[in-house]
Model the fold of this input.
Amino acid sequence: MDLIIILTYTAICIAIFKIFKIPLNKWSVPTAILGGVVILSAILLLMNYNHPYAKYAKEVFVNIPIVPEVTGTVATVDVMPNQLVKKGTILFTLENQQQQITLDQAEAALVEAKNAVLQKDESLLAAIANVQKATAERNRTKASYDRVIEGHEKAGINSPFTQQEIDNKRNFYEAAKATLSSAQSEERRLRLDTESKIAGENTVVAQLMAERDKARLDFERTFIRAPVDGVPMQIAIRPGVRASSLPLRPVMSFIPNEKRRIAGLFFQNSLRRLEKGLAAEVIFDAVPGKVFTGKVVDVLPAMAEGQIQANGLLIPASMIGQHGFAIAVIELDEDLSDYNLPLGVQGQAAVINHKHDILHVSLVRRILLRMMAWLKYVYPIK
Done:
């Protein structure tokens, strides 16, 4: 871009010398050269400082690796590559006979457990009735035993009850108490069994419901669906391919349908005038003669050239000597989809800072950017 400014000034000087027939002598030529140095230096300094220029700008996008959550063999591929699909659309399916069998077994065990709970409820009702019956029998035998004891004590030696009759009544009473105790114990056991619940469900039923839900989830995971609206790219899988649930082995790339954004590479001295909300202009190698307007939506708070990780290695000198660049994210006002451009197109970008543009040198920056856009018809210069 600096070369364009110099060539433009040179062309203007030549035109002035030709039109006004200014002689080339020791006064005119040095004056033009020195004037150019002063004027162009001032313009370049103000323009580069107030209106940062990104020699390299590229569209960035997210690539979602599609990894199945269960391991299996691909049964069907249900989408075409590079075609927009909606969220939830089935991308491909895995063979799921084993998951279906597991799900059927879990559902059968759940039904059996629910029936067992109903049977235990009925058994509890029967146990309650047995307790009531045993209580009544205990009360009857106790009353009979008390009556015999009372009559025997009042009559004394003239008692009509023999000792054997008294012993029989006492035995009947003790047997009734033992029967009642056994019935109460059975009632408590059944009550604990039927009233053992989690979130309103019997504990056994709740456990089997969880196993059923897990089996259903494993079965559903054999249908791999689109995570969001987007485009599946480069579908290389075919029926019979083994798909693993390991995150290091994705089987498909999926590009979400998001607003397209441009990342510009700026020198660090541009950070004084580079901030969110500023106007920006972008040109692309693929669209000669066109300038896209937008705004800066983010300036990344870190530079990758300075990052380190806890891996036991010392920091190399080459990393310290590597120059880092600031990255600004630009969102365009116009939809690039109208130009049928693939994701990842590249070009150049400029940020226009009107707030500090006292001499309006932004006009020069914009003119130069448009000149570069037109030159891309011949060669995509940087």
In short: The CA atoms of residues 311 and 319 lie 15 Å apart. The helical segments are 2-19, 28-50, 97-155, 163-195, 203-220, 317-321, 362-375. The chain has a mean pLDDT of 83. The chain has three domains: 2-61+258-306+323-375, 64-95+222-255, 98-218.
